[in-house]
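In this section we walk through a basic example: taking a raw amino acid sequence and producing a predicted 3D structure, encoded as discrete structure tokens. The instruction is simple. Fold the sequence below.
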Amino acid sequence: MARKGAGATPATQALTRAGVAFTLHPYEHDPRAESFGLEAAGALGVDPACVLKTLLADVDGRLVVAVVPVSGRLDLKALARAVGGSRAAMADPATAERSTGYVVGGISPLGQRRRLPTVVDVSALAHPVVYVSGGRRGLDLGLAPVDLVALTDAVTAAVARD
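The resulting token sequence is shown next.
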């Protein structure tokens, strides 16, 4: 469990408040990295399939959070279907930052400013531990995927593709 201080972010605070076991995984972020998620997987030495990226999409005029493996891409049509919508497009990065309170590349699915509908790719459930952004670039959190789903009130669906 994290304590308040240098590692504290809204994400770690949300996990601590909920009493959920998690691990902190800081790493040296390279601002030149082309993929924040693949950078994290390499720095942590873990399979990219269990490192998840948090993306925001506009589904029929409302923001939706999608959490998918960094090794794949978000299937926007599948995301729209998962939340009962018909059309989805990636959200504007500035809108994503304003809504979540995090910067792109450090958006965590946990501890966001506003609770948004969330979809976690079903593949996350195949891993005992998944890694998500801790709320800033260079910090990931390890936790059980069932805890991630529970804390975000997420639905699980096949929303990732290779």
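Looking at the output, two observations stand out. Helices lie at 10-18, 36-44, 76-82, 93-100, 145-152. The radius of gyration is 14 Å. In the next section we compare this with other chains.
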